[in-house]
Structures are given as structure tokens and as C-alpha cells.
Amino acid sequence: MLDRALKGSQGYWGWLVFLLVLMGIGAGCWLYQFFEGLKITGMSRDVSWGLYIGQLTYFVGVAASGVMVVLPCYLHNYKAFGRITILGEFLAVSAIIMCLLFVFVDLGNPVRIMNVILYPTPNSILFWDMIVLNVYMLLNIIIGWNVLAAERKGIHYQKWIKVLIYISIPWAFSIHTVTAFLYAGLPGRHFWLTSIMAARFLSSAFCAGPALLILLCLIVRKVTRFDPGKEQIRTLAGIVTYAMLINVFFFLLELFTAFYSQIPGHMHPIVFLFKGLDGVGNLAPWMWAATVFAVISLILLVVPSTRRNEGTLAVACAVLIAATWIDKGLGLIVAGFTPNPFETVTKYWPTTPEVLITIGVLATGFFVLTVLYKVATSIKTEVAA
Amino acid sequence: MYDGGKIIVGLIIGLGLFLSPFFYNAGKAAKAPAPELTPKAKEAKVCVEPASYMRESHFTLLDEWRHTVVRDGERYYKGSEGKRYYKSLQRTCLECHSNYSKFCLECHNYLDVDPYCWDCHIQPEEKK
Amino acid sequence: MGLDRREFLKIAGMAALFGLGGKAAIDIFAPGELEASMEGIPVSKGKRWAMVIDIRKCLAQQAKDKDGCKQCIIACHRAHNVPDWGDPKIEIKWIWQDSFEHSFPDQHNPYIEEELRHQPVILMCNHCVNPPCVRVCPTQATFKREEDGIVCMDMHRCIGCRFCMAACPYGSRSFNWGNPRKAPKELNPDYPTNRDYPERCKGVVEKCDFCVERIARGELPACVEACDKIKAHALTFGDLADPNSNVRKLLKEHYTIRRKPELGTEPNLFYIV
Predict the structure, then answer these.
(1) What pLDDT is attached to residue A108?
(2) Which ipTM score applies to this complex?
(3) In chain C, how many domains are there?
(4) Which of A113, A109, A105 is nearest to A27 (CA)?
(5) CB–CB of C90 and A44 under 8 A?
């Protein structure tokens, strides 16, 4: 089946080469980081995680959102999604690859990564995160690949695949819950120490992931002969709308608790994000942009005519992705470390090599995604023909 | 088999590349270096364990030492001869073997191993 | 010689009560013979090491020096080859000073003596009874020694994920953002400052370990020794589990506070205000 990825148009190869160039630049910067240490990044002793871990968090969400097509299809027998489950599963696979790479590039001692397995530590959430992410990736590779292979041969997939599918559904929820637990159980980090963290993560994942999937469906329709379908996109848009409403609602809950209780520790990180604290306010324009994007996306999504129009829906999805990315991929991590344990503020902004490494990892993920989507769409077209 | 010829040629080239280091290095075995002992080490006659064991397994011993010292706080080692040693690379081993380049490095280079002990542990200053 | 570890500790503890060191106890009990059974036994004999920091004594000493006293910091950082990066964003700190206000942010009180508020307080790892850093570490590279409660770092094992830094509510952990050997030469002219002690590689986390290597030899932590040397005696190190110890005596006689006790970490550093 993989041979389908070796035959493609000029545009396909051009895109792959472009991604390879970005991957090469990222790899080069990573080598520089490997030899010089993480001091080449914008992170510091006060803000000791940054862009990398932010992307890990964001893309765990994208990976988990694959369940939003799998669940209606297999649990509710919503047949229409049968057409695009493979797209959701392959999106999950490439998102997890990005997540693992983001953890890897964030390590101070990447050559020792196997220590996590050599010295298994059940009390560490990172240990569990490693397990759930890897298993989820395997599940999606096995399920996606086998279902696609069965479809190519015109047969029904085997029974044991169905078992894996049922396992993969709660597993999707688990990966983002465990990722939220990385943050939500740390004493003294007020912004993260909230029991609604996992729920917030899931809601933002279930809007951002399917929004990305909608955009991918629209691209697939444009560049391949496979049409993911109008009804499918429409249903996804409904899911995105509800999830985004819940996501914004959860965020407002956080605002209420912080500002009605007026406990300084709860208010400070949010003030830092939207206004700045101790003269450091470099994230404020971003957060306000995210707020505007969120409002625009909600208007476009809630109004039926703009939601059903694929042009305005695409805009809604794009701004929604931007809004959730700023919130989760940038603000969440930095605000967790701000103010620091001494209630002072250290500024964080990623450096150029750090951004290039991040882009390199993203390019790797999209490279895998492109190849997998090429295989999937080629086979779907062949079967249909 | 489709493209059988191409596949076979590809396999041969692949195998050739895989074996190239052997062809490249064939017949060029380097002379095994003999670790040089400092006068102090010579005088001591015995190391923590017999020389043959040390030659073959010093890294196992050091690994065990670093583990038990750091993690269990067990700072003394009883050699098979019954003598007690303070488990420390810098304070015990290098006390005698203070000639890093002749005692450690030559052999490590010969075997192409690059232990990261020296990323943190300080080599004794050698008289040039 | 059939002494097991627990028994040995008991004898060593009894000897300590009579003011004898662990080695002396061995000599009294069975000279020579016990020497062999030392193998595999930690030499340090406290059950719960702790420190009492007398801010008043420290401040008195600070006032004497024109630039303030930093003897404990200098001694510690020299003993452990802690480099000076000259950049607060990536600096390594085992023991350091910060203002009272920053050190005890939970003591919100705008009317607290203006004097005290901006005065420096000595800070280091709290060696918590319930350390969040140990809880989150995915490789057990940071761990709590059961026998004496010291929170240790296994720098051979640390993968540099920095989860412990996110978990520590005291900012006590430092990451090697760069290779310490590449720290600016002009700031570290005689680095490494202690050729008996290792350095670190880039990419590992480090912190105060109550000088495990010194207390194993029956010496006091470097900071305490330095403070005693200048006769400031602001730092007292001892066994909290022993009701007659020096630290327990101080805790009985003085009102002490700990940093962020509401987090349930149970710090083993106590401050006399």
C-alpha cells in the first residue's frame, strides 16, 4: 500500500521537498542545540518549559480529537463518518509523532531517553504520558492501516480490529487527561492547579482537532480525486461548534474563580496573560488576538448560514485553530510559570533556533501526514473506481 | 518479480555499502596499546581487584560504584582481598592512575569507546 | 560478625548520644572487626536531617560586611564546582539569597517591618518530607533517601525533562542550560574550584544535597561550616528525629517559620525571624 506514496503529481513532490527542507533546517538547529545545550532557547530557570512543551500539549489534543470521528462511526453507527475515520486516525498518528518529537527536543539529555523505560516510575505522570501516547499511536497505526487494507481488498476488516477500535476510544480521552495531569497536580503553580484542566484540554482538543480535520478535508477534496463528503464536513462543523462553546465556557469558569475570589495567586497568571505583570506583557497582544479570533470563530460557527457555507466555515476553522493554539500552545505553559515561586516575572520568548526546531518538528508531522493521506486517498479513489 | 534486475542490483549495492567498512579496514589492525602505570600504581602492585578483572570489567565496577554511592549512600567497597576502599573515581582511582592520556584514553581510543565519565569528572592535571 | 544494618544504626545512634561519632562507636563496640561490616552501610547517621536558619544572626553578620556576607554561598558553590554564568536566567543556585518578601510570598503583610521586607534571606533546597520533585521525576533521578530524608540528585540518570523544576514550589532546582565548562572564563577564573568533586554535564538538573559527601565523612555541610568559621552561627544543621538534637533545641526555644507550609510539602528548613 505504501507504494501509493511513491507516485504523485509535481505539486505533491514539491510539497514533500519543501517539508524536507524545513525538516533539514530544524535538524540542523537541533544539532546546534544538542551541542550547545538548551541555553540557545528562550527558556530560563523561571520559565523552564516553553514552545516545545506547548506544542506537545496542543498536538496531544489534535491526536485525541481523532476520536471525534471514530466514536460516532463505531459507537453510534454513524455511517457517513466511515468515509473519513481513516483521515482522523492518520491525523492522530502524525500528531503523536510530533508530540514525541517535541518531548525529545525538549530533553536536556536526549541520549538518556531510554531511562524512562529502564527505570519505570509509576508515580510520575510523564511516565504514564509516555505509555498512553505510544500505545495510542500504535493503536491508530494498526487500526487505520488494517481497515484501509481490508477496504482495498473489498473485505470486512478482522474482528480483533474492532476490539482495538473500542479500546482506542477511551484511550483517546486518556491521552489528553494524562497530559493535563502533567500540569494539574503541581503544588505552587496556581494557573495549572485546577481540576478543570483535563476538561478544558479535552474541549479545546475536540474543537481544534476537528477544525483542523475540516481544513484537511477541504484540501484533500481540492488536491485529490477523493471527496471526504459534504455531510461529513457539516457534522464535523457541528462538533467543532459545541466543543468550542464548551471550551470558552470552561475558560470563563476559570476567570470567575480567579477574579471573584480575588486570590492573588489565581489572578496573577491571567493578569499576566492579558495585561502584563511587573512590566512584562509580551503575551498580551497574542491573548487579545486569540480572544478576537475565538469570538469570530464562534459567530461564524453558531450562525447556521456561515457554518454551512464551506468558505466561511474554513475561515472559522482557521481562526479557531489560531485562537486555541495561542491559548494552549503558548499562553498555558508560560502563564503556568508566571509569576515564579518568588512572585517575580521573567520574560519568555522563543529564540530563532527554537522556532526553527519547532517548525522542523511540525514539518516532520505534516510529512508523515501527507504520505499517509496520499496512501489513504489513493486507495479510496481506487476502490471507488 | 517486477523490476527483478533493478532490485538485485540495488541489493548488491546495499550489501556492498554495508560491508564497505570491513573492506576499508581489512588488514590494517592497529597495535593494541599497553596501559602505562604511574610509579604510584606500580608500587601499589594491586588495584581494587586483580588486574585482569580490572582490565575487563572496570566499567562494571565503576557503574556499580556510582550507583551505590549516589543512590544508596554506600561509600565503601570491600575488595576480594578484603581491603576497604572509598568508592570514588576522582579520589580513589585517579589517586594512582593520574595519567589519563596514557592509562585511559589510549585504550578507549583503540576500542573506540567514548565514556562520558569525563563530561563531569575531572581528569588529573598531567605533567607534560 | 553478624550485625545487620538496623542494629548498626542503633549502636551508632547510641554512640552519638554520648557525643561520639559513628567511627568511634565502631571502635568501642568491636575494634577492627566492625571495620569490615561498614561495607554497605551509609556513614551518615541522622534520620531526618534539617536546618535551622537564624535570620537575625544572618542579618547581623550582613550588617558587619560592607557588601553583605555571602560566605555560605561562596563556600558551597566552590565546594560543588557551581559555575557563575553571569545571567540570572540560566544561573545555577544551590544556596542563594533573596529578599524576605520574595522568599515568603505567602506572608502578605504590607506593614511588616520595612527593615525585614527587603532584607536578604538564605535559601536552598528544603529537603521536603513530601517532595513534589521526587513525585514527578520519570526516572527516579531525584529521590529521597529513606535513611535520612535528604532529597538527592542522581546526575548520571537525569534526562533533563525539567518536570521537577515545574513541580518545585521553591525554585530550588537549577538546570544546566549550557555546559558548565563553557561558563564565561572571566567570571570563573579558577574553575573547577574543587578538583575533588565532579562537575556536571549540560542538560541535567542539580540542587543542594545537604552535602551528602561531607556528612558521610562526619563533616558539616559546607555552608554551615563557612558560617561557623566566621562565628556568625546563623545556620544549624542537625537531626530532627532526635529530640535532644541541636535543631530540636532551637525549634523549642524560638518561633520559626517555613516557606509555603500550606502546600503540604513539609520543608525541613526552618527560619527564626
Answers:
(1) 96
(2) 0.92
(3) 2
(4) A105
(5) yes
